[in-house]
Amino acid sequence: MTAAPETTVSARFLGLLARDLPPDRLTTDPAELAAHATDRSGTPPGGEPLAVVRARRTGDVTVTLRHANALGIPVVPRGAGTGLSGGATAGEGALVLDLSGMNRILELSAEDQLAVVEPGVITAELDRAAGTHGLRYAPDPASAAMSTIGGNIATNAGGLRCAKYGVTRDSVLGLEAVLADGTVIATGRRTVKGVTGYDLTALLTGSEGTLAVITSATLRLRPTPVATATLAAWFDSFETAAEASYAIARAGVVPALAELVDGPVLHAIDPALSERGAALLVVQCDGAGAAAEAAAVARVLAPLASAVQSTEDPVEAEALLAARRLALPALERLGRPLIEDIVVPRSRLAEAVREIRCISARHDVPVFTIAHAADGNLHPIIVVDPTLDRLPDAAWEAAGEIFALALRLGGTLTGEHGVGVLKRQWVADELGPTAHALQRRLKDVFDPRHILNPGKGL
Amino acid sequence: MTAAPETTVSARFLGLLARDLPPDRLTTDPAELAAHATDRSGTPPGGEPLAVVRARRTGDVTVTLRHANALGIPVVPRGAGTGLSGGATAGEGALVLDLSGMNRILELSAEDQLAVVEPGVITAELDRAAGTHGLRYAPDPASAAMSTIGGNIATNAGGLRCAKYGVTRDSVLGLEAVLADGTVIATGRRTVKGVTGYDLTALLTGSEGTLAVITSATLRLRPTPVATATLAAWFDSFETAAEASYAIARAGVVPALAELVDGPVLHAIDPALSERGAALLVVQCDGAGAAAEAAAVARVLAPLASAVQSTEDPVEAEALLAARRLALPALERLGRPLIEDIVVPRSRLAEAVREIRCISARHDVPVFTIAHAADGNLHPIIVVDPTLDRLPDAAWEAAGEIFALALRLGGTLTGEHGVGVLKRQWVADELGPTAHALQRRLKDVFDPRHILNPGKGL
């Protein structure tokens, strides 16, 4: 009896990897395969991956991709697996390329306010290392303590501070990346400005591992603000809190963060919290003008809020932010959270929230909402029974209506989590047929055989 | 006698444009052709363009490109022609697509802090319109009073304020653009965040008219700062001024602008100015913390400068900035300025300046230098005899050494002016062969027949 052709190809691929990679890189241990098959979204991968390569050097990536490309083996690049859209799910026959072991900070220049890091560096660790030089890495996705820089770049991750400091793309100066055929390219530069050539750095940022595998990144660091002032305001309705958030923008203040938490989330964290109001807005201002800006924010909030607390003490500030940080763990206690990530123009935030409440009622699906209010970035979270094999139809339909709502209000399907597999069926609606077709042709330039993270993103 | 084949194709092209465009769009008037053949760099175009299409609507652009693509006619998109790298030069047989007449502000939303504009809107006019709503358009290239938004996007223009607010790309949320074959695409969105699909907006920004013709842009506006504080400091040497500029960064201050002017430029503006010092550094801080930040800057400058003046009065601030604004007009009185635009990592600014002085001495070519110091963006300006037909060899060699210097110090050929034709021969050195080849393949996706601004950029 001869092996089926696909088995032969897979076996040949694994043989080549075993031959050409250092001995500790390749594993087919079933426990490892299972641990690398999905991400924090819990999306079922559809089968078992072929193997995991634990890359330690750029050379491991080039060897792996060269063979995979020659043999047409799908490759799923992976950082810490904290993605929320299924971008790192690896199904039947796929090779998982685990970059979490490429975790060295190669350079940290206080003079040039930049760092050169491998993709597996944990985001919060880079921020901590920068902190010893009076600097910080501004992007702070909620997963920062676990997620990797490579994964952050793959999804163009946001976070709380991007209200003022921009998303991951705004902190990426240059990249080293490996194309599908194993070619290494360098993009961008070590300077904050530069226009030689097309902006491949921005093109790779947010491409969810479908164009190239990032093996190093030159990242911008920024001075740690000299002062911080934090306010927490309670409101009688989520809509009023949303309106308060854009009254802050209208007053000309750019807060460092502005986080909105709705009543059901407050209740999930602690029923006592939800007795204080139907919504909580936490605003932080930073820099030399922090206190003056916080005072301006307090004046804007006063007529709208039922209570406002403020502090310039960092420990008290953390206590005010605690409700926001506890939101996801609290919802995870209730079931499996399906975290949506829509963005609407800032002025439509209150309208979006009203519509989401209608969608929730219509489908009888509880929706919990937190928002990065300054960006118009809403996370409506549908919590489903974790024992179910697949999402209930009602949850799926509610999610679809939430996406349609985002597009109708002039917004987007995903602000910072990426398309992954979960939002893929709505992508063409947002991009339109012409831009969608153009994007597919760009994919062909980078990855003509479509081995890089197939089925994700576009 | 029959016409040569190329004449037939050109004539056929002009016939199709005359048939399909509204009557006032097409001109072959020799005075118009001459006026549209080069840009502010004064680069000789090498022949006379075929015709000028003065587009008024997106439809004019699609008609023009559809016919040009079918017949293989080169098209040079053009805004106000204020480019400094020859990006809008249009030689023998090229069609000039003049977008300066598409100059409507289509929308200005104070609530969402954005504007939707046609590409021919003058940059300063958008900023002024935003000002009536307490907002501003942050990018402020020195040409802002004349240059267009479309041209700014084509070169990813910088300016003074990008020290704090980023370059043009950081203010472009979305674009409408026409591909070479006449297809209209929409990129990006109306929200500050969003990761659906690859970042075509960033890819088109800085592409110098070689990928698509921009017909509308959705631009981010920002609140006008509540306060501004300005300092001017005089130094005994340019190197000390450069060192002072990064001492500001080291102190954790992000100034709104930090402009450096060297002694020869001061002398060209007014010999009395150069008696005050060998270099001038003008720093502006803005926002609620402006005064506190300016005080911190003054403390940093005090031990290094020979004199420091400061003001919070906007009229006095303009007087302090006047020397910087007068630099280019003053040099234009001396001859034809060839303005270089290199960027080096901030910490290498003083070293770059020393090396530029050596290059100047070695080739006996006077080099005048101004710099956006916070970005490490230097403009070494070689002034040549305007009566010469071509650049003297010594000027060309000095320019080449300045580019090599930028790359050696880990910098780039161009920070904000673009490659155009003038820097083209050095592009491959910066990008490296692999990234260069990849960029050419991207060009093929957008413009397979290479009709869009041929000979520019890559």
Written overview of the protein:
Two copies of one chain form a homodimer. Chain A has 458 residues and is an alpha+beta fold. Chain A has three domains: 5-98, Uridine Diphospho-n-acetylenolpyruvylglucosamine Reductase, domain 2 (2-Layer Sandwich); 105-223, Uridine Diphospho-n-acetylenolpyruvylglucosamine Reductase, domain 3, CATH 3.30.465.10; 228-417, Vanillyl-alcohol Oxidase, Chain A, domain 3 (3-Layer(aba) Sandwich), CATH 3.40.462. Chain A has helices at residues 5-20, 30-35, 58-71, 123-131, 149-155, 162-165, 200-204, 238-250, 263-269, 271-274, 290-301, 314-334, 349-363, 393-408, 427-431, 433-446; strands spanning 26-27, 51-54, 75-78, 95-98, 105-109, 114-117, 135-136, 172-178, 184-188, 213-220, 222-223, 228-235, 257-262, 279-286, 307-311, 336-339, 342-343, 367-372, 377-384. In chain A, strands 12, 13, 14, 15, 16, 17, 18 and 19 form an eight-stranded antiparallel sheet that branches. In chain A, strands 5-6-10-8-9 form a five-stranded antiparallel sheet. A four-stranded mixed sheet of chain A has the order 1-2-4-3, covered by helices on one side. In chain A, strand 8 and strand 9 form a beta hairpin. The longest helix of chain A is centred in the last third of the chain and has 21 residues, at 314-334. Chain A is globular, with a radius of gyration of 23 Å. The two termini of chain A are 40 Å apart. The mean pLDDT of chain A is 95. Chains A and B meet through strand 9, helix 7, strand 11, helix 8 and helix 11 of A and strand 9, helix 7, strand 11, helix 8 and helix 11 of B.
